[in-house]
Amino acid sequence: MSHTPPPPEGLLAELTHRCPLACPYCSNPVALDAPRAEMSTDDWKRIFSEAAEMGVLHLHLSGGEPCSRRDLAELTAHAVEAGLYTNLITSGVGLTRELFDRLVAAGLDHLQLSIQGVDAPQADWIGGYKGGYAKKREVAAWVTAEGLPLTVNAVIHRGNVEDAPRMVDLAVELGARRVEIAHTQYYGWALKNRAKLMPTREQSDRAYAAVEARRAHYLGQVVIDHVAPDYHARFPKACMSGWGRQTLNVSPSGKVLPCHSAEIIPGLEFWNAREKPLAEIWAHSPAFEAFRGFDWMQEPCRSCERKGQDFGGCRCQAMALLGDASACDPACTKSPHHGLVNEIAARDSEGPVEGFAPRRYARQEEIPTPA
Predict the structure, then answer these.
(1) Which residues pair with residue 190 across a beta bridge?
(2) Strands (DSSP E) along 235-300, which ranges?
(3) pTM of the predicted model as reported, rounded to 2 decimal places
(4) pLDDT tens for each residue of 207-223
């Protein structure tokens, strides 16, 4: 693209890759940024100011676990002062009452809480953290008592797929105004654990139908965002609403990415927010320009009537499965390689749900699989 794109609507700030949980589907890269590589408080403040100046509306404070940053309340206050709508994306683990009160005082607008299961044995096993489920319920109570909007998000996989509709029920019980039920996206740690996480097509279809039924049941009470399972879909999702169209990610070390998994694509040049202004990176970074618009597309995407809806699907998925980031996402039934997705889904849904490669810097004692 030669023209300057409209400003992004949202910025995902991955403040750190530190996290007390060990979720096997984590979207962070397998090569986690070390704590010593994290940007300073002043770096992040400058980036938030630049984001507001260029027209960003929503700031998502994420990680890892953002509560691992001692300066989280200070960063939140600066973002609010800059005019950004602030959303904290947290596991709840590591969020103390004292820190929560400081975040509220700083002007935090919204909190998004992850859940891994509908009860303690399941949730603590998947997250790899004893006591995590109880802590999440405590944090949800703080949020709703304070009157802050609460979103609950749950990642669905073979270990909890039968409980997908109960995840919606739990979110309503916790007082959420919005719930995101997202079937696992197989990049990063999830790709590493795909053979342990992949549900069968029958399980995915049942779960999808049950969650859609909850949408009608809870109409007017809670908003349900439902991310379909790629490997069992007819058409791919519009990943990131199109590459470099609406959002950008900043990694803990300052790399500015079109999506959280973009680093798996070889040959892309990622500019760093420590070195260049955010607006310049958004408009001119080779990584952002690589898959903007439609000129990069191969067939069948180039002539497809859906290209303005799904933008060819996910570039990282095409890279991971086909070794070609410019190819049609093989999740699409129009892809000549769609049979590969069916083959992988059938093969990887057969094994036991145990023996995850847990997301972590260093080895920890694993929690036994619940009966």
Answers:
(1) none
(2) 247-250, 256-257
(3) 0.94
(4) 999 999 999 999 999 99
